[in-house]
Specification:
Layout (H helix, E strand, L loop, with lengths): L23 H7 L5 H17 L4 H8 L3 H13 L3 E5 L5 E5 L2 H6 L8 H21 L5 H14 L3 H13 L5 H13 L5 H17 L2 H13 L8 H15 L5
Antiparallel strand pairs: 1-2
Helix pairs in contact: 2-4, 6-8, 7-9, 8-9
Length: 253
């Protein structure tokens, strides 16, 4: 059998020894990017939580032959990726929570699933898909959380996020923190929807067309085109003089 033509099927089980389900979004996002050791720890840890609600790190370290340093390195990796989130118990101690990418995408609202909520969830799903196509990579949980927090704080439509990433892509900076600056600027200008943004841009366009500065700018261009090319500014002459001294090996004051 050739590799490209292999067919796979799951065997029907006669004895159920337990299964652990994983979110497809996690598998699609992190399996391609995470190293093998980090994935091993996550899978074993997640399996224990699903089956018993508890994790025995010492057991996992023995299974993988990891020392404390290696285990801490892996935990730091998932924490930095936003998959593990530090939570305070309120008594001075804390625990690590594994976040749900699916819930991160659609928000943490505890309200009943109204028609309006379902519509917003669908629009957010479309938004995240479009953003990932624009930036040509998967969004991390930190990215998703920052976008959610910004939308919730500024009360803006998801479509504005997509537009912000489009504009950021044009200047080759799609860092999420930078892109959220677009939303803050628009919020300060009372722009909360894509329609608000289009209206503002149309008004700005009309103002530019009516502005007398356009005529002044044209006159300035005309004067610069007709300027005597032999005339040199004092600064330009000084630069040429310094360059000449450099070539001659002289001292420059």
């Amino acid at each position: 059998m050739e590799g490209n033509n292999l067919e796979f099927k799951i065997q029907n089980l006669s004895l159920d020894m337990g299964e652990t389900s994983f979110e497809n979004m996690f598998l699609n996002t992190y399996v391609p990017m995470a190293d093998g050791d980090s994935l091993k720890v996550f899978l074993l840890l997640y399996k224990d939580l699903k089956s018993s609600g508890e994790v025995d790190l010492e057991k996992i370290k023995r299974q993988l032959a990891f020392d404390d340093e290696k285990m801490n390195e892996v935990i730091s990796y998932w924490t930095n990726m936003g998959v593990f989130r530090k939570k305070d118990r309120g008594d001075g101690t804390f625990y690590l929570e594994i976040i749900s990418l699916r819930q991160a995408y659609f928000g943490n609202s505890k309200e009943n699933a109204s028609e309006n909520m379902l519509d917003t969830s669908k629009r957010k799903s479309v938004m995240f898909n479009q953003v990932e196509r624009i930036i040509q990579r998967q969004l991390t949980p930190q990215d998703i959380r920052r976008i959610h927090e910004t939308l919730d704080e500024y009360k803006q439509d998801p479509e504005l996020v997509t537009e912000a990433f489009r504009q950021a892509k044009e200047v080759n900076n799609v860092d999420v923190k930078y892109v959220m600056g677009f939303l803050k600027t628009w919020r300060d200008q009372s722009i909360f929807s894509l329609n608000d943004l289009k209206i503002k841009e149309e008004r700005a366009k009309l103002m530019r067309e009516k502005s007398p500065r356009k005529y002044k700018s044209a006159k300035k261009v005309y004067r610069s085109k007709n300027k005597n090319p032999n005339e040199k500014s004092y600064a330009q002459k000084a630069r040429e003089e310094r360059f000449k001294k450099i070539l001659e090996g002289g001292d420059i004051i």
